[in-house]
């Protein structure tokens, strides 16, 4: 379990990115961080693997402060997938996926078996893709390789920062379906940042709305759609209007509730 306890993040210029954030992230759940742009959701994600450190408060993993973990070992136990695919351009697909297993000194046979297994899991034929270079991949294929790399060393947690937002709708829909199946099959804790409420409702077991550096709510889909807070209702409705056309707030919420059944 990951716990935020009264966490603040203040930058040297005085900008407060995270304000008194407290929340618990359960193991083996698909957890969504969602909110308006600049609201703090990506900062909160980066604090989990210490790309950003808290100014005050503490973040615990399995009841241990993350500052007490060796930072390299901490990060090796966390897969990370970005919006902009960050494959190593001079490594082929095999080498990209093998990076963390090699850091962990796995033997060559184990690494090969794992790379091929992960390619199959993300629906890429190992015989076709293992030796391809990143510049030979489509955007969707490259993001599938990035997901395979994030999962290759069997991490406890996978952090995903708007990984599908730059993809075309058909590719995005396919990857959403695949990552949900992978999470269910592997029972990994995935923490997924998005600005898209429809994506959040599709994927999330637990959805955390973050705005102005504060956690407004962490709830299941049904609890979220039944919440009476006006900001939360308006945020959901605006997102669904953008996706589905001009519906009233109440119509948007009704449609969303029907879609979760």
From TrEMBL:
Query: In the UniProt record, does the keyword Transport occur?
Result: yes
Record keyword Transport present: yes
Domain of life (superkingdom): Bacteria
One Gene Ontology term from the biological process aspect of the record: quaternary ammonium group transport
Show the InterPro entries listed in the entry: AAA+_ATPase (IPR003593), ABC_transporter-like_ATP-bd (IPR003439), ABC_transporter-like_CS (IPR017871), P-loop_NTPase (IPR027417)
Q: Which GO terms describe its molecular function?
A: ATP binding; ATP hydrolysis activity
**What Pfam families does its record include?**
ABC_tran
Annotated keywords:
ATP-binding, Nucleotide-binding, Transport
Q: Which residues form the ABC transporter domain?
A: 2-237
What PANTHER family does this protein map onto? OSMOPROTECTANT IMPORT ATP-BINDING PROTEIN OSMV
Q: Which family does it belong to?
A: Belongs to the ABC transporter superfamily.
Name of the protein: Putative glutamine transport ATP-binding protein
The species this protein belongs to is Campylobacter geochelonis
Please state the gene responsible for encoding this protein. Answer: proV
